[in-house]
Amino acid sequence: MTNVREHVYEPFTEQSVLVYLEKKGLITDKEQVTCKEVGDGNLNYVFIVKDLQTDKSLVVKQALPYAKVVGESWPLSLDRARIERQALQEAAKYVPTLVPEVFDYDDDYAVTVMEDLSDHVILRKGLLEGNLYPHISEHIGTYLAENLFNASDEALGPIEKKKLARQFVNPDLCDITEKLVFTDPYQNAESNSYPENLQEAVESLWQDDRLIFEVAKLKKQFLTEGETLLHGDLHTGSVFVTEESTKVIDPEFAFYGPAGFDIGAFIANLTLNYIAQQERADESNRHEISDYLLETIEQTWAVFEKRYRELLLEKGFEERQRTDQYADYVLEKIWQDTLGFAGCKTIRRIIGLAHVEDIDGIEDETGRLQAQQRAIETGRSLIFNRSVWRSPKSLTAYLKGLAK
Amino acid sequence: MTNVREHVYEPFTEQSVLVYLEKKGLITDKEQVTCKEVGDGNLNYVFIVKDLQTDKSLVVKQALPYAKVVGESWPLSLDRARIERQALQEAAKYVPTLVPEVFDYDDDYAVTVMEDLSDHVILRKGLLEGNLYPHISEHIGTYLAENLFNASDEALGPIEKKKLARQFVNPDLCDITEKLVFTDPYQNAESNSYPENLQEAVESLWQDDRLIFEVAKLKKQFLTEGETLLHGDLHTGSVFVTEESTKVIDPEFAFYGPAGFDIGAFIANLTLNYIAQQERADESNRHEISDYLLETIEQTWAVFEKRYRELLLEKGFEERQRTDQYADYVLEKIWQDTLGFAGCKTIRRIIGLAHVEDIDGIEDETGRLQAQQRAIETGRSLIFNRSVWRSPKSLTAYLKGLAK
């Protein structure tokens, strides 16, 4: 583990970051560049630095030693900057076109200097504007298969996997996920956040012992199953897109966990968007975008499943891993976990601390309540049916049943 | 991770270890002590140092940078001395009477100075001499429950468990287990070692695709399920006993893995001893020792199960973990894993590199072959029946069926 020398660290300003970049030789003349901090300042600073003469730009991301949540300050290790940077570098080995390029870094300052993606938009935002991105399932399915396979025991063998896993022990950030995804939404916790008119649905969930027990099992898996290096927070806000390009960003929650967690996070966020689309005011392309979302859920899994199997059969470390029987076993477990974690991720976005604009932005109050109730119900179905729904068709059939 | 400064390290001699101890202030006058190296020299040096005036003694254990196996040298990280020492210190927090006391250590020299247990005998040896140890199940059941619970997520919570797990990443030693327990016995590997007259049984095992697939699943669990801090090599050769005292030694294979692995290792070695007893020449106390072994298998689990449940219900980190429903779930998984791993541990001792005196020491060739075949068959049954045999009674009933 790299220890951040905290006495060196200080948060940059728009001015001091340029002094730093000049010293590092990353810009030649700080008088000829513009610099703008564009992060939300809750967890990180994000400076966009643009050279006025060449028009080239770069991003400087710096971790802050706390997270501002619900008005309070939650201390967070600066080491997460190293984890995020190394996770980006790991991903770049396998899918260099699907992550921002890392140009430089400095663990003492908790800083990563990387590709500016200002020409991209956040996928969540793009979907809410009614845009369809034709390559998303191909790109995210490939991203998932390449990363989740290539960091696994089956790819790396006994020594390298453990060395890599040790680099990605991430207690602080895992603690956030454990609290906000697996614990707090299932009890009357201070961090929860939901509208008054959802009180009844929420209390009924807190009394659902069967559900709470299933979530406890999923949490135990999250805590103990170090299968592969995860992104750790792969919602549609962690994906930058253009019509042609997809870039997965912000892997600061990266750690060795169960593969289905990343896939589940992505599918949950498509599911939330789908549920929201049924209630949103713009009916003109509701059918088109609904079909697109269901197709994207199915295809993301299909692309993942096909590529993961190819990689395992081709590059599996041991002969007995390079068999369809073993691949079936591994992929069936990943699929079940995907559904279970997708369920948890869906519910937490309604009851827990961090919401999504997809749902919260529904203007009509009745529609919003309906979407919230449906999201909770869908999350429950995903969790209960994780060993019953054998393919994405089961989930998309369920979602079709909710369509307007 | 502590890095051993390899330029400082050198293997001690019976002379130089005394110079070292004197410098450290652990002995006052090296002219007044005796020193004898008693290790087998394959992995570690073990020096017994005795003060002639006070009659007090201590053990200096030093890791060697290689393992001598089948005449070859297998390089091994010296860091395992730190891992072993820290595992002893962790265990001493919960069961100080069941492990040797650590007096001092020096990671640069890969050295631990600890309690001398020369008045104890190795449990395997004691059992082969026909001795019964009345406290073994109470002691080992307690050792297992306290250690396996107290290092788990349920005991330590989200932050501490991950920090501890990072200290016990143990690639080199896990690699040995993965090869010798889960891989090589199931294929025609150079490391295997078995008598010619077992060739047929061994080849039939290599063709048992169903078994090989189940072992691949168990290996995946061993690789990915970081439930708790294991001893990692808890056979009857890692237990020192007297009539009254039990001390678990040599946890250099310690790492975060599935809890059932340790319990399985212990039960497998009692099982091997039981199978061997049926063929050994001394019939005088065969019934008595057979009954004792079956009772010990049942009671070790019973003591473990009861104490683990108490600890979970009393000290579980979250309210929802402090329920019988959750305890049932966790303990049922541990039990299934115990059986599966016990099966692998039984088979490897017949076909793989490292054998046990219990079986190999059977003088009658026919009896020895019978025991070897039965051990393989028992291992297979343990693996196949791990979700069918609901309690130790199923295993002991099976073993009773083998009795003479």
What is the domain total for the residues of chain A? 2
Parts with pLDDT < 50 across at least 5 consecutive residues of chain A: none
Average of per-residue pLDDT values of chain A: 94
Oligomer: homodimer
Strand order of the largest sheet of chain A: 1-2-3-7-6
Label the CATH architecture of the largest domain in chain A.
Answer: Alpha-Beta Complex
Notes on the structure:
2 copies of one chain form a homodimer. In chain A, 51% of the residues lie in helices and 13% in strands. The first copy, chain A, is α+β, with helices and mostly antiparallel strands and 404 residues long. In chain A, helix 4 runs parallel beside helix 10 (286-315), helix 10 packs antiparallel against helix 11 (324-351) and helix 10 (286-315) packs antiparallel against helix 14. The N and C termini of chain A lie far apart (52 Å). The mean pLDDT of chain A is 94. The A-B interface holds A 1, 153, 158-159, 161-163, 165-166, 169-172, 174-175, 178-179, 183, 186-187, 212-213, 216-217, 220, 223-227, 318-321, 325-326, 329-330 and B 1, 153, 158-159, 161-163, 165-166, 169-172, 174-175, 178-179, 183, 186-187, 212-213, 216-217, 220, 223-227, 318-321, 325-326, 329-330. Chains A, B: One of its GO terms (molecular function) is S-methyl-5-thioribose kinase activity. Chains A, B: Catalyzes the phosphorylation of methylthioribose into methylthioribose-1-phosphate. Chains A, B: Its EC number is 2.7.1.100. Chains A, B: Pathway: Amino-acid biosynthesis; L-methionine biosynthesis via salvage pathway; S-methyl-5-thio-alpha-D-ribose 1-phosphate from S-methyl-5'-thioadenosine (hydrolase route): step 2/2.
